[in-house]
Amino acid sequence: CGIGSSLIIFSDLMTKVIFNKYALNIPNIKVYLIIISLAYSIYSFNAVGYFSLLATRYEQFVTNLVIASGILSLSLIYILSLKFGLIGACIGNLGYVLTLALNVKAIKVLKIDGVKYLKVLVSPILLTVIFSIVSLIFNNIFLSAVLYIIIIIILLHQLDRYTDVLKKIIITIKKIIKL
Length: 179
Hints:
- This protein is mainly alpha-helical.
- It has helices spanning about 1-10, 10-20, 30-45, 45-55, 60-85, 85-90, 100-110, 115-140, 140-175.
- Helix 2 packs across helix 3 and helix 8 packs antiparallel against helix 9 (about 140-175).
- The mean pLDDT is about 85.
């Protein structure tokens, strides 16, 4: 969430730095960067479910879901790029968010409090989306820096809650695989 939010919040600066003079020749390059950053940020939240399921011997489920998500994403990229061009290809990457279902399966397999688990995941996503929208509306580097610092402070403050959930997951995994 941290890297994705930084790319979104500082997208104007990033496009100027990364793409330099080429950014001027590609209309909407900032929008493309934001969409791709958002897609990757969202489905990076599949990590806990992914590794928890692998540790509890649900490799087949993980493999099937990852392959299905990849096929969905590639299909959407192809179809949407034909219809809408580069922006369609960027949006097509959102098909991979299907891998977030790994978290749902992990909650069931590990028998953990799903509401608490999802709160830990949802709050940084909502915070990042809200601050990113505000940052994009005002397009001010100082405001963007302040909002990003606030995001980091809040995420660090929530780290205790996240750590508690992860500890419970690790304990449950150890019980399941009898370590």
